[in-house]
């Protein structure tokens, strides 16, 4: 019988801390984890080098590639010691049970980390305590693993332009997004402790994504230290979030041409990671044509005005931008956003 050391947070939310990883979990699918773990769980798995790599999976319950990759990875190392210790946090098992990103009564597990705009939410208190625990271990690096719903390549996200952060991200993909908002994401919080990256593994169910993530984890775990030489500009495509596109709560939307406040083009997510010229249309306004997109600045000081024009009901981009993470998924649109507008940046 495995003994859990409970870390009491409050009456509602607590995480378990376990100084081993039961092999029985290697065959448990994400949606069944809540029958095996009583709460979000932090596992310490000892490896050759002591300073641990912190890995988080299932902060979004329906993004299961990270969990599948961890299982595959740990299976490989069942009879061999890990090159480096791992701290693994398995997050929103309740949302995973019903295959959703976040339950309707929860704060998003990836908007709840230190610096969150909702620091008093039970989820924020939970993440603060996980963060404190991880901080005590002085982590070597941090990796948060996600999927997304639109048509996107594999890419990494960093919140600092430091060479170690970029090197870490480049081990996964040459496409790297730099952002400072939204607040409360894991990598932004962990950036205060160690090089941190969020990796986006495309859609759920892609075997290549699992394989690629396993290789990435292995590459990072085998790093004895970060290289002394700087990351070369030609080795990465560095882009930065300028604006976050949201829809008014009360507005309706469609992607199939049916009438709605926003009638988006059917292939909207195929615009992801392409450079869009001014004049590109995302679709047209329908209904009473009385709604406009809500554009939030994607970074401090960014000018979120003037991105769109609605002449003759066309939703028309007015500035050059790289669109990313545009999604057709109604849940993602309602609970998060329609997508992001970015531009290419150079380091100083
Ligand atoms: Zn996610």
How do you describe this structure in short?
With 348 residues, the protein is of the alpha/beta class.
Task: Work out the strand percent.
Answer: 25-35%
Return the CATH topology of the largest domain: Aminopeptidase
**Count of domain modules:** 2
Query: Which outline best applies?
Result: globular
Number of helices: 8
Rg: 20 Å
Q: Do you know the CATH architecture of the largest domain?
A: 3-Layer(aba) Sandwich
Question: Averaged pLDDT, please?
Answer: 94
| Unique bound compounds | zinc ion
Work out the helicity level.
Answer: 10-25%
Q: Tell me about the largest β-sheet.
A: 14 strands, mixed
Topology as H/E string?
EEHEEHEHHEEHEHEHEEEEEEEEEHE
User: Class of the largest domain, according to the CATH hierarchy?
Assistant: Alpha Beta
- Distance between the amino and carboxyl termini: 55 Å
Uncertain stretches: 7-11
CATH superfamily of the largest domain: Zn peptidases
Describe this structure in words.
This protein has 348 residues and is α/β, with parallel strands linked by helices. Strands 1, 2, 3, 4, 5, 6, 7, 8, 9, 10, 13, 15, 18 and 19 form a 14-stranded mixed sheet that branches. The protein has a 5-stranded mixed sheet with strand order 11-12-14-17-16, with no helix packed on it. It has 2 domains: 5-235, Zn peptidases (Aminopeptidase); 242-343, no CATH class. The chain has helices at 33-36, 65-76, 93-97, 122-136, 163-170, 186-190, 207-222, 330-335, and strands at residues 5-7, 15-18, 41-45, 47-57, 82-90, 141-146, 155-158, 175-178, 196-200, 237-246, 253-254, 262-264, 275-276, 281-285, 294-297, 308-309, 314-317, 321-324, 339-344. Helices cover 20% and strands 27% of the residues. α2 crosses α7. The site of zinc ion has 4 residues, from loops. Residues 60, 63, 110, 146 line the site of zinc ion.
